[in-house]
Amino acid sequence: xxKMSFSFSGILYISRIFFVIFxxxxxxxxxxxxxxxxKNKGKIKVxxxxxxxxxxxxxxxxxxxVGASRAKEDFNIVxxxxxxxxxxxxxxxxxxxxxxGFDLIxxxxxxxxxxxxxxxxxxxELKFAIVDVEVKGDNVASILFExxxxxxxxxxxxxxxxKTGKIGFVGGMDIPLIHRFYEGYKAGALYINPKVEVYxxxxxxxxDAWNDPTKGKEIALAQYSRxxxxxxxxxxxxxxxxxxxxEEVKKFVIGNDSNQNYLKPGYVLxxxxxxxxxxxxxxxxxxxxxxxxxxxxxxxxKNKGLDYAIDDYNRNLIxxxxxxxxxxxxxxxxxxxxxxxxxxxxxxxxxEHK
Length: 354
Hints:
single chain, alpha/beta, Rossmann fold, 2 domains, six-stranded mixed sheet, 11 helices, globular
């Protein structure tokens, strides 16, 4: 009996120690949280919700993160990023940020559209922004790009460097936005070589098409096997598979959104720069300085929202004479002398004729 009593007392003693430690840690955690809240009191809070590919896609999402991170350093804001992982997790991610009273919530990519539309109406006192698609609302800024202009320039480079007269295009999701890239790319290639053949392929019709490198590699290898010696990847993380394919067959790839020239040195001909980082930085700056404006914010070649990348990784891959032609075309586009075909206008005309 004595032994049992001692054991029971020992258990009680250990339990008390456990509870003291547990509540001590809980108090410490609450204290730290309180200090953090005090430290961030009065700061602008910005939430960034990526699409399913996440912030390390080395493309579109990564560029958004770079711009937001730079804004955090420059303006001393509170920045929280959310990687939903699955498309179904996007809506609750946006909603949680709104419930926590974030001053600005940015949805990266058109997959955020229905949820930004819905939540922005429920929280009219907050500000929202979305990249790549228009959402109407008195508290929503829509960040849009004239992608076809930048794609035209890299299409010129692809056709100008190609030795086979055959080039390829791998898109992520089969949607009008990505067709806009393709049409601009094809037009630029034909501008240099009217006889060039341009192959096209897409990874799928769901949001998963942005995060499937295996599929991207498969499509690219098929295009290379048909004679393409340059393939443009406008496919988010799926495009990483195109880079692997280029290295495997020792042919060229063109990157997209961010400067991806460094990924496979010697095989990346150039990258079309869609400066999402600049746009995200600007919208955060507008909120911090009290200059937020809802509606469309458009970025193009003229305001340097688009370009192509030339650096130490690819400078020797493109003839200087070709660069001069591309620069001339860029200025002609800016001045309105050269009109790049716009897929959005094309489908709009087709709809009117029906």
